[in-house]
Amino acid sequence: xxxxxxxxxxxxxTGTGWAVGGRTATIILSLLANAVMARILxxxxxxxxxxxxxxxxxxxxxxxLGLGNATVSIVASELARNHDVRxxxxxxxxxxxxxxxxxxxxxxxxFWFGSLIDSFVKIPGxxxxxxxxxxxxxxxxxxxxxxEIYRSH
Length: 153
Prior knowledge:
By secondary structure, this protein is mostly helical. It is 86% helix and 0% strand.
């Protein structure tokens, strides 16, 4: 039975284990990746990478517009009512809105970031990679939203 206390407890423990394990693995892998990059890249290149990473992270959060949490709540609610079709429609709409918002955020990053870097920081070569940063914003936003949608199941 789905509402059996032992089943709920088991699912809660299992879900918590996966969440903690996933977060721990992410932290360890990020630390290792940063250590490798620090060994491979020159200090100015590493600084450029972290500057771009910071801008991409901020723009991805802006692009999500709180959509992930809202989608989790609404899709889970619809699934609990056995409205699978409605939940799917909401998930698709969330992804479409997220895609549009991430493209707008990427365009802002391209125009704003490029002019900001050129006028204040003067890091050579950084404006050439802004196009890749735009793609990174879209990819990061979409993967985060997709993960949130699957979390609601």
